[in-house]
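User: Please predict the structure of the protein below. I'd like the answer in structure-token form so I can feed it into my own downstream comparison script.

Assistant: Understood. Taking the following sequence of 1051 residues as input:
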Amino acid sequence: MAGNDWINSYLEAILDVGPSLDDKKSSLLLRERGRFSPTRYFVEEVITGFDETDLYRSWVKAQATRSPQERNTRLENMCWRIWNLARQKKQLEGEEAQRKAKRRLEHERGRREATADMSEDLSEGEKGDPASDVSAHGESVRGRLPRISSTETMEAWASQQRGKKLYIVLISIHGLIRGENMELGRDSDTGGQVKYVVELARALGSMPGVYRVDLLTRQVSAPDVDWSYGEPTEMLAPRNPETMEELGESAGSYIIRIPFGPRDKYIPKEHLWPHIPEFVDGALNHVVQMSKVLGEQIGNGQPLWPVAIHGHYADAGDSAALLSGALNVPMLFTGHSLGRDKLEQLLKQARLSREEINTTYKIMRRIEAEELSLDVSEVVITSTRQEIDEQWRLYDGFDPIVEKKIRARIKRNVSCYGRYMPRMTVMPPGMEFHHITPEDGDMDGETDGIEDKPATPDPTIWADVMRFFNNPRKPMILALARPDPKKNITTLVKAFGECRPLRDLANLTLIMGNRDSIDEMSGTNASVLLSVLKLIDKYDLYGLVAYPKHHKQSDVPDIYRLAAKTKGVFINPAFIEPFGLTLIEAAAYGLPIVATQNGGPVDIHRVLDNGLLVDPHDQQSIADALLKLVADKQLWARCRQNGLKNIHLFSWPEHCKTYLSRIASRKPRHPQWQRSDDTDENSESESPNDSLRDIHDLSLNLKFSMDGEKNEGNGNETSVGSEEDRKNKLENAVMSWSKGLKDRKSGLADKADQNAASAKYPALKRRKYLIVIAVDSDSLSELLDIIEKVFSSVEKERKEGSVGFILSTSLTIIEIHSFLASSGLSPSDFDVYICNSGSDLYYPSLTSEKRPFSIDFYYHSHVEYRWGGEGLRKTLVRWAASVTDKKAENEEPIVALSEKLSTDYCYTFQVQKPGSVPPIKEVRKMLRIQAFRCHAIYCQNWTRLNVIPVLASRCQALRYLFVRWGIDLSKVVVFTGECGDTDYEGLLGGLHKSVILKGVCSNIGSQFHANRNYPLSDVLSLDNPNIVQAPENCSCDDIRSSLENLGLLKA
């Protein structure tokens, strides 16, 4: 609770009343309500919905109440509420302690298994010391941030980049974003992140070698926000135009606003989750079109794909992961604020239960987005090392010890057994310093070396501050922070008040936000401010402490200048500071600093060396550090000079140089079909180069032969196999390739006889509309019934060829072929087959009856990123053996690998008892803890478990078809049941339309919902106009009516 003084006072009042109250005088409320349980009344009617703020206000009212009986009633109510809050807090703390202990055991077990697998062939030195591994992230803990020692070095680096033409995409979804006059602080979503991403985009666009930067955000055309947020495009003017190279036609930095979600409503970030797929589809369309435009301008006709997609915050990270997968482009991620850390803090406060926190903040959906960002990201950018050591390590997908093992193996160029970790990089935010002139004068108005310069009037904020002081010429100790308990302002005031020499030498200025009345402030902030005022009175600090009520954002630089003019000191005494941007700002104006030794200030001080670090809990340490800097003028001058000399290390050019070097160190990825035969009838190559590429891939991962049969061996990757086995398998692959090439040559004659248009374009490119049947039926007969109804409902359009069909399922292509044959359907009835839960893509082959399907190998190049291969398979087999039916006598395993159903990019496990297997969220957690990046899906009514690459899914396959063949996603309709496989939710969002068939797959709904950490409403908008429901036992006419309602067919 916020403060203890008022609690003690009313508790004393309650004790004064004592137990002498009889039934007639006990309580007005009790007597008025008659016969009922007092405990039930207070718990249900009084306590519910109240927190410490309400208690504080109740106490104020009780103090002001004249009637003793009514006053006692109020105090009695408050006593019950305090008791209940304390009981609830203790209960929540106990539950959270149990949850943490379980989580710790899971991580330790996963870490042991992962490190055991990767330590077999490492030397003792490379295995590392677990005690020192905790803070190991590929960089020395004591290492300083990389720095550019001179202007010549920067110019030399810039000259090396000028030949490059890079396209970079940044994503920041929530808040109100524009280039000028940012409304920072307008709401909780429009804060420091908005300023950061805009300045980053602007700075990157000014760097040598960067041609274009797009900052993608939400288009908001609501009546309660400015019209500028509804503009589709806004160019960001560079801060230093003279540093820019000659711009091309589409070069520079731009804010691109993508319409998604409610068109006429500005909504908070917690309500954006259901609309993320719509943003992804819109952003994908923009990036593809822009890549083609840039290709025409500077790419010799070939699309210029982004070198990186950078997501900011969890919602943008989720979007960037899907975009990265659809485009096969590297992803970067910056969390800014992390969900698990926020959840930990809220649970510690014990005001809300986990369920209430999730309802308010959608915290579990946010955490899952951050876990996905870890799965997909190649680089994770943090502001401080503390963010890595204390926040990211809370996640299943990151473990510093496992990360060090992986780094050691990568350096030795040995297999990591399919395990991956993103590269954690400390990269402090940049700042603009070109407009800052350090204050060189003093309070007498003299400036060094500028005698003839006319005097300018002092800023008005100076007068607002100095009116508090008896002697405004004394050095000013400046603190700039909200009146929040975490900022530790009261300890600073105590340190100042109890140190007489410090009071004699300096003044104290507290800039604690803006306020009109203390009564209108939140309870916590009001309590802190009242405590500060009481301390000022206690130590008689009138005339020594300034605490102005108001200031503008534009006044902050002038406040820094005033402190520097008085030869003062800036202090940040927070208990923990994630970064400490104000410390950098103060240093830029020539102020030495005193800062907390917890968090980001440690990194800042290591670079700037312009002050002292203190223990924020040690009041004497704070006073001594301030006194030392104020009293020792030589030390003050040295710290000031160090700060000004090193401040450029936090400039935007330095930040962008490090940023671009991180991108350059990543292996470039982009769509792989940029060749003359891109528009062939199917994606199977006629060039021997592709088959040679398959042989090369085989030499790297000897798991499957060219004809798809499993190899008999030890199952390890090539790096642990013998040279003789490797040679024999390569010889077999070459023979298989030679035979396949002969077959391909013989097929060329057949292909020449085909219609020219059919040979050049796949059938789906000629369709006006596409219908995707993604119904996860309980039986194949039900699936056939649905297919026949859909076919019949659009029979006319089907014969005309204006409507095409896609079958999207968890079945293998062999099972699909058998299903089609037994049902009297032809492979050509569908234009595309999305198989194995989205890990394989096939087209009907028009050239050979023996080969009715053609696989899209390029799709594999899209989804194979971070695929675990044989290492993943061995871990899954080990896990499956541990999953048993606890209720059975023998506890036999109930999950087993199916070699027959598994493919190169899908490991399929058959489930014997669907009700006894762990939820899919637990399976994903287990895989993430062991550093595997994949997508686990329960399918076929929970009788199968498919494990596929992390970037593969049925919805991602549709986006791939858009990128590859240019299908219009807004003219795609997806048919689903009421429920389905655990990837079901991904099929219902985005630009495409959806028809939900009521009564289909409804019997597995409860089990489906138990497999998620969050409700379906967190990912699916219930009032989405792109989703309609067909009635139960629907007819062909009902299906056609649904398609007409979606605007796909004419009535």
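That's the full token string. The chain has a mean pLDDT of 80.
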